[in-house]
Amino acid sequence: MITCENGIFAIQAEAYSYLxxxxxxxRLEHLYFGAPVKTTDAEAFYCRPGLGWGAxxxxxxxxxxxxxxxxxxxxxxxxxxDLRESPMAFGGQTKSPVYHSHAVFDGIAPMxxxxxxxxxxxxxxxxxxxxxxxxxxxxxxxxPTVLTRRTVVKNTGSETLSLxxxxxxxxxxxxxxxxxxxxxxxxxxxxKHTLPVLDSRIVNESTTGFSSNRxxxxxxxxxxxxxxxxxxxxxxxxxxxxxHYSSAQRSHQQLTxxxxxxxxxxxxxxxxxxxxxxxxxxxxxxxxxxxxxxxQNMHRFVNDHIIPxxxxxxxxxxxxxxxxxxxxxxxHNRLLGLARKAKKLGCELFVLDDGWFGKRNDDHAGLGxxxxxxxxxxxxxxxxxSAVNKxxxxxxxxxxxxxxxxxxxxxxxxxxxxxRDEHPLILGRHQLLLDLTKPEVRDYIVEKVSRxxxxxxxxxxxxxxxxxxxxxxxxxxxxxxxxxxxxxRIFGPRPNILxxxxxxxxxxxxxxxxxxxxQIWCSDNTDPIDRxxxxxxxxxxxxxxxxxxxxSAAPHAQTLRHTPLATRGNVSFFGCLGYELDLKHLLPVExxxxxxxxxxxxxxxxxxxxxxxxxxxxGWQVSxxxxxxxxxxxxLCHAAPGYQWLKVKGLNPKVDYRMVxxxxxxxxxxxxxxxxxxxxxxxxxxxxxxxxxxxxxxLPDGQEDIHCSGAALASGVAxxxxxxxxxxxxxxxxxxDFGSNVYVIEPAP
Length: 749
Ligand code: DGJ
Known about the structure:
Layout: E1 2-5, E2 8-12, E3 17-22, E4 28-34, E5 88-89, E6 98-106, E7 123-131, E8 134-142, E9 147-155, E10 161-163, E11 165-174, E12 178-185, E13 188-196, E14 202-205, E15 219-222, E16 233-238, E17 244-250, E18 255-262, E19 269-271, E20 276-278, E21 282-287, H1 290-306, E22 319-321, H2 323-326, H3 332-345, E23 349-352, H4 380-390, E24 394-399, E25 403-404, H5 409-413, E26 432-433, H6 439-453, E27 460-463, H7 473-491, E28 498-501, H8 511-514, E29 519-521, H9 528-539, E30 547-551, H10 565-572, E31 576-579, H11 588-610, E32 612-616, E33 619-624, E34 627-633, E35 645-646, E36 656-661, E37 665-667, H12 675-678, H13 688-696, E38 698-700, E39 705-709, H14 710-715, E40 717-718, E41 740-747
Parallel strand pairs: 22-23, 22-31, 23-24, 24-27, 27-28, 28-29, 29-30, 30-31
Antiparallel strand pairs: 1-2, 2-3, 3-4, 5-11, 6-7, 7-8, 8-9, 9-20, 9-21, 10-19, 11-18, 12-13, 12-15, 14-17, 15-16, 16-21, 17-18, 25-26, 32-33, 33-34, 34-41, 35-40, 36-39, 36-41, 37-38
Helix pairs in contact: 6-7, 9-10, 10-11
The structure holds (2R,3S,4R,5S)-2-(hydroxymethyl)piperidine-3,4,5-triol.
């Protein structure tokens, strides 16, 4: 519900209240953003400047309350006395628009530039600030758990304006906060870093042309005392896939100014008379229930308002992807062999990754030429897809449509189609980006990809992008608009195709891409132990339905780490499960284990993908209806480990529950020479007999089956003892390094 009475604007939603006022000088003063309060509380939040601070610049010399520098503001002018960072810049020109008018609409206010935006809001407030020759429109759209804000600048004068910075929002929050950013690189995405916001500005920015794996656009501001379950935490994110910027800085008056938008780095947009410029939509969330409460608000918003409607709450298929198993080396028969095996394991979708077209036999050539390689696929995609369909699986295909290799027919025909400037070309992974600002390039991509999609029964697309951009400022923004245009034109008419976007893993994991692709391949790093950190980082801002999570081979390709197959499954369960390894060499015991994993996941898939997610001290949990699933993960083992407890959150303390762990099996080979202590005959631990037994026989690991109240589970129930080096105990948990398990908690029958 949005109201405006007596100069007080109030946005009241299920999870928050947002209050601001227009003051006697037409400035918008921020009053409150937090857990719901009454609109009549507004006055209580007003920061009174008294007689003002020394050295102030006053808009009215007789009015000490007229200093913009010390006000908590919704928007700040450039020049004119607010000496803090400005959310807008016009190449050095002073701009100071003031309140002009406002209006409230039902639903969203559709954007006009082609940027994606959240859908199905209750109401939108538009406040217009104006001065001669300029209008600033501030949009506030209310969703149940978040507010979105965006800014439009309009040139209402007769001279062209040079817009060099425009944030999507600017806000002054009372008090001091810690800022959390999510940073990294290829195969190390979403590393969580927290530091106090003090008097110097802290910036979270991407200048790579994309939202980037270096700095995810989403940030948190938290009360220094906030914990996982208590205290105030704010979250901010941007519905945008290009260069982004956000900053936080505390003022002398203890106001923390935060803003977010397109990166102003090298940005310059010529705004002709009558023209306007739209900044992307920003998301603002708050919770007084700690980081968990904040994540919950963000998750609900993404699942209900960002993901394409068709895929909201729709179960995602368990896929097999051939990339880590085959790379570029495959043909029809090898793929079909893998598909048969994947089907036997229980997979539902077979995805053919890179290498199916042109001269794409390694990553030096062929990108851009989407003509099927008939040597590898003599029956074409149609033949392969229908053979896969006949097995009872869906078929999916990889593309990297934004890129081109210099060694490709496309580049030879259109060298002018690549993104470049007057300098020599720079390659990344031996490739260039196509210039998506050009209509003919966009038409080519739409035509080529659409034709392939319509040539066979393709129900899933992996849309990859594997290099940084060289475009700066305006060009860089126009590229992203071009990308959204292409995605909308290809997938809008094909809503049944499940789109998973990817950019060397998580180099473009953002809300803009999620408006088109319900899930994103979040990292090329599939090592489950590294994945614990990556998926935990993502979980602060994005629900688990948005990330692809695959089981791959051990030792792992990037870490050489050996992890139990059970743990690889237990980590990947908390996302959209897939398998990505060569299935040809799976041992009989591994086949059984994967079959058991897939059966388990299918039983609880909706809970894993869409359940209410929570971070635990040593793992994660998801809940939906009466069922909770908790994953508990260990690092390196130590001799003589102590007791261990599992605390489960969010249960009804009065209800009696049964907690059962997933039955896991122990490999005989894991015991090595120890087996000789219990075997009736002498066995060579490296011999054929031992190997044969190891490949076919497993021992049951200890399984929990605990009946107790929700109150007991919240307090922490004692788990079975761990391996103590004194023999095999069928009731103990013999997990070894990087062991884990998943626990199913349901009301007792
Ligand atoms: C990078 C992606 O992240 C991988 O999953 C794979 O699709 C390769 N590209 C293929 O070249």
